[in-house]
Amino acid sequence: MTIARVYNVDDIDTDRIIPGKYTKTLDLAALAAHVLEDLDPAFAATVQPGDILVAGHNFGCGSSREQAPLALKAAGVSAVIARSFARIFYRNAINIGLPIIEVEWHSIESGDALSVDLVNGLVTNHSRHESFPAGRMPQQMIEILNAGGLVNYLRERGGYA
Question: Which among 12, 86, 134, 150 is most buried, taking Cβ atoms within 10 Å?
Fold first, then answer.
């Protein structure tokens, strides 16, 4: 179980996840230090490893920058739950090994203890004794996540040097 960090806001774009002025580095710690600073200036300083980010519709819209899911993962976010995701963010998150899951309706509040079952498409809010159905993730995507991302997945299969 991990703790929910809820931002019930729609259209959180990639520039709000990691402002463009910080994307000129490959230093993951630098990205993590500025993640979500325009939405919640205290986020980077207060996020705990394993926290789950919960958001509204169209999370990750905007540019296709891969740094957005990288910044979240580097900050310690273990998964993102949203009512819907921008498709390019969805794929970028899977490719870098950040689990994401769509849940249309839920009553999750900040601080709730959650668990995510990607195989069965289920989010459980242990604090409120509720479960919410989610879209089941295809097995190949689960394998990519289990490998830590697409590059590792392909390396494990001999398809990438």
Answer: 12
Q: Taking the mean position of all CA atoms in its chain, how far away is CA 146?
A: 15
Give the DSSP H/E element, type plus range, for residue 55.
Answer: strand 52-55
Distance from C-alpha of 23 to C-alpha of 25, rounded to nearest angstrom:
5
Q: For position 76, which CATH number holds?
A: 3.20.19.10
Q: Kind and range of the H or E element at 44?
A: helix 43-46
Tell me which residue of 158, 132, 134, 133 sits closest to 147, measured CA to CA.
158
Amino acid at 1: M
Range of the domain at 129: 2-156
What is the pLDDT confidence band of residue 150, given thresholds at 50, 70 and 90?
A: very high
Distance (Å, rounded) from C-alpha 86 to C-alpha 12? Answer: 10
**Is residue 108 pLDDT above 60, yes or no?**
yes
* 161 domain residue, yes or no: no
Q: What is the C-alpha R_g of the chain?
A: 15
Q: Is the dihedral of CA 113, 35, 46, 9 positive or negative?
A: negative
Rounded to two decimals, what is the model's pTM?
0.93
Residue 85, pLDDT score:
96
